[in-house]
Specification:
elongated, five-stranded mixed β-barrel
């Protein structure tokens, strides 16, 4: 039948139909099945307990750094309280009424910073010098007798003189006070070398240990309060008093050279150690627990 239809049409008409099909092709319909896109579920943050199980022994060992610094901070809190109590005790002793020097001189070992009254004579031919030291000035006492100028107050020495107690065979050491360097030689201040029996008040001081890198004693000049060595050289008992400012005489050493203050820098240590403890704890949590790095 197809052949009959084709044969009934002319050849040119058939060719014309094929050409039209080539120029205007029939669009093809393609059916595709699409599935709805499913977004992945959100990631859940793991809890800290999950991380703790993965911390290595080395990571746990790093906690010793913040723990140690925290312990040092607590120790400095205790030290600060102890130092403040000690300063208060020294202030209390320094303001106690003076008492006579005890018959048993060994009792002075338990009386540091207390004021005692003594009576006797200075042995000026055996004096020692301790320094160099700056002058501790009390009011206008440094102007007594015009011994030194204000500019000289930073360079000088303490005059340590053996003192023979009245009515006893005992000799002790007394720090008469401060003199400028140009008056170190006793001959330059003969007017200030008091003679005869005198009564004065002095603050009990104990020997001090030799500071690190301090040279040894040379001649009659000491670099630190070496009471044992001074006593051995002068034949006196190893007990030492700082004469009060009231003992100052014209052209003589300036008394009152007792330093009562103690260094108290524990507050800065407390801040330093606790700050280090907090910072290292934060670093440990960030890098070990959270696993973050810088």
């Amino acid at each position: 039948m197809l052949k009959t239809i084709l044969s009934s049409q002319s050849v040119p008409a058939v060719r014309h139909s094929i050409g039209a099909l080539k120029q205007h092709p029939v669009p093809r319909c393609i059916h595709t099945r699409t599935k709805p896109r499913i977004s992945p579920p959100p990631k859940l943050k793991s809890s800290s307990t999950d991380h703790n199980t993965s911390i290595s022994p080395f990571g746990w060992g790093l906690l010793i750094i913040p723990a140690t610094t925290f312990g040092l901070g607590c120790w400095q809190v205790y030290r600060k309280q102890w130092k403040e109590g000690l300063i208060s005790e020294l202030e209390r002793k320094i303001h106690m009424p003076p008492v006579p020097i005890p018959d048993d001189l060994s009792d002075l070992n338990e009386m540091e910073y207390q004021t005692v009254t003594v009576r006797g004579q200075f042995l000026h031919d055996q004096e020692f010098h301790l320094g160099p030291r700056a002058c501790i000035q009390h009011g206008d006492s440094h102007t007594t007798g015009g011994l030194f100028s204000q500019k000289e107050a930073s360079i000088g020495f303490l005059v340590i003189t053996p003192f023979k107690l009245e009515g006893r065979d005992d000799k002790i050491l007394i720090n008469r006070g401060w003199v400028p360097k140009r008056f170190l030689d006793p001959e330059t201040r003969r007017e200030g070398q008091v003679s005869g029996t005198v009564e004065l008040q002095g603050v009990v001081r104990l020997p001090e240990n030799r500071p690190q890198f301090t040279p040894k004693q040379r001649g009659a000049i000491f670099m630190y309060r070496d009471v044992e060595k001074m006593a051995a050289l002068s034949g006196s008992e190893p007990f030492y008093l700082d004469a009060t400012v009231a003992s100052t005489v014209p052209l003589g050493p300036v008394g009152g050279q007792t330093r009562v203050t103690l260094r108290n820098e524990h507050l800065s240590y407390i801040v330093t150690w606790f700050s280090l403890s907090g910072f290292t704890t934060w670093l440990w949590f960030r890098q070990i627990v959270r696993g973050k790095s810088f």
